[in-house]
């Protein structure tokens, strides 16, 4: 499969809650907790409900990049294809 045939993957680097991160990896929150347990000291404790940007970077570095397909991006592309306009660039 060529790169042009693959769906775009996006991940906004920001603070995420545990359920949000679990959803990115398409697993349950309970499973996600088990996955990050070996890296708990390196990740550090959450402040409130969210892991901060540096903690998210550490999680990504240890678990790898999730295969995230942005639903919003897919919907936007469908609308653009119907309208015949040029799709906006994603960064």
Keywords:
5 helices; single chain; 91 residues; disordered N terminus
Quick structural summary:
The chain has 91 residues and is mainly alpha-helical. It contains 5 helices and 2 strands, in the order βαααβαα.
Account of the 3D structure:
The chain is mainly α and 91 residues long. The chain has one domain. It has helices at 18-24, 29-36, 40-43, 53-63, 71-83, and strands at 16-17, 50-51. The chain has a two-stranded antiparallel sheet. Helix 1 crosses helix 2 (29-36). Residues 1-8 have low confidence and may be disordered.
Instruction: Please provide the count of β strands.
Output: 2
Order of helices and strands: EHHHEHH
Question: Would you tell me the overall average pLDDT?
Answer: 80
Low-confidence stretches: 1-8
Helix proportion range: 40-55%
Structural class: mainly alpha
What is the total domain count? 1
* Major beta sheet, strand line-up: 1-2
- Strand proportion, as a percent range, falls in under 5%
**Individual helix count:** 5
Instruction: Supply Rg.
Output: 16 Å
Large-scale geometry: elongated
End-to-end Cα distance, whole Å, is 23 Å
Largest sheet: 2 strands, antiparallel
List the helices and strands and how they pair.
Elements: E1 16-17, H1 18-24, H2 29-36, H3 40-43, E2 50-51, H4 53-63, H5 71-83
Antiparallel strand pairs: 1-2
Helix pairs in contact: 1-2
